[in-house]
Write a structure and sequence with these properties.
Layout lengths: L4 H5 L7 H14 L2 H4 L3 H17 L2 H20 L2 H10 L5 H4 L5 H4 L17 E8 H6 L1 E12 L8 E2 L2 E2 L8 E12 L8 E4 L15 E8 L5 E3 L2 E8 L1 H6 L1 E7 L2 E7 L8 E4 L5 E2 L2 E2 L2 E7 L7 H13 L10
Parallel strand pairs: 1-7, 9-15
Antiparallel strand pairs: 2-5, 3-4, 6-7, 8-9, 10-11, 12-15, 13-14
Helix pairs in contact: 2-4, 5-6
The structure holds zinc ion.
């Protein structure tokens, strides 16, 4: 006997189909790698939960499994383990299905109408990722989010059949899935990994229990070419040694289009130049762009250029190291 699927789903052999499904949904959401973390341990556990559900939700596979399980516990108490092993192999191997592991979202996000009167149970919370830019995080934004929601079929009321004929609306499933649009206001100054809670927009509650909540996990995308400091944008631009000495104009892309940045003669390496109002906007206030100038030595110099640099060296009368002494 390899795994105790009942133990994995925290149920017993006498649990009903609904209870198996409910336990599975609860655990699958709890241990979903997107929620619990993408570590090998969690992925293994998540697979195990799905594997258990694959077997226990299928009446034929479950019957085979139960037989093997009962035999195993009997054999363990009476005979040698060798015999158990041999006999167990002759039954349909429940592990076979784990190779065809498939994760059924429809199982996770669906609810069958419960016939028995049971205590109210709160629906599970749902977590969903939302990615925003750093500008949206600072200034605030509104995002439209589509979430798949499952509801009891309005035509058959979850009964699956109407006058003995399969319901045409839900094709006998008893429920329908539709996308619900949310227009979510993301407040200015939101931090990475913040959660926004949409009350009762999660999984439907059972037996009159309240719905779960929908949590949006905000991910702030870090820009590649610049950093931010409050409303200011910090950017580094490269200039050539002769631009540093002679001065010049450099085109700098900003949020409000390209700006011509004036490099004054004798610009030092690491010098900062402020472009007023070219930063991030928040409540009609604009930050600045702070450009740090980095003198970059050209890599592929021609013979002519090297000759001219040598000539410069010869005629230069200034001893720059003298100042450092
Ligand atoms: Zn229906």
């Amino acid at each position: 006997m390899t795994k105790d699927y009942y133990k994995i789903l925290d149920i017993t052999e006498s649990s009903s189909t609904e209870e198996i499904k409910s336990a599975y949904r609860h655990l699958a959401r709890k241990w979903h790698p997107d929620v619990a973390g993408n570590t090998p341990d969690i992925i293994a556990r998540f697979k195990e939960i799905n594997e258990a559900y694959e077997i226990l939700s299928d009446s034929l596979k479950k019957a085979d499994y139960d037989k093997a399980r009962r035999f195993y516990s009997y054999a363990k108490n009476s005979y040698s383990k060798q015999e158990t092993k041999t006999n167990y192999k002759t039954t349909k191997n429940p592990n076979k299905t784990s190779k065809n592991f498939s994760f059924k979202w429809e199982d996770l996000f669906s609810h069958k109408k419960e016939r028995d009167v049971k205590p109210p149970r709160k629906g599970d919370d749902i977590y969903s990722d939302v990615e925003i830019s750093v500008f949206e995080a600072v200034s605030g934004t509104t995002k439209v989010i589509n979430m798949l929601q499952t509801n009891i079929c309005p035509k058959c009321g979850g009964r699956r059949f109407i006058n003995g004929t399969q319901c045409s609306n839900c094709k006998g499933k008893g429920e329908t899935s539709t996308y619900k649009r949310f227009s979510v206001k993301i407040p200015a100054g939101i931090k990475d990994k913040s959660k926004i809670r949409l009350a009762e927009e999660g999984e439907k509650g059972l037996n009159g229990g309240r719905n779960g909540d929908l949590y949006l996990i905000i991910h702030v995308r870090e820009p590649k070419n610049y950093k931010t400091d409050g409303l200011n944008i910090l950017k580094t631009i490269a200039i050539t040694p002769y631009e540093a000495v002679l001065g010049g104009n450099v085109t700098v892309p900003t949020l409000r289009g390209n700006v011509s940045l004036k490099i004054t003669p004798q610009t030092r390496n690491g010098q900062k130049i402020r472009l007023s109002g070219c930063g991030i906007e928040q409540n009609n206030k604009f930050g600045d762009m702070i450009v740090t100038v980095e003198i970059e030595i050209p890599k592929n110099l021609t013979d002519e250029e090297i000759r001219l640099y040598k000539r410069l060296q010869e005629i230069s009368g200034e001893n720059i190291r003298e100042r450092l002494e």
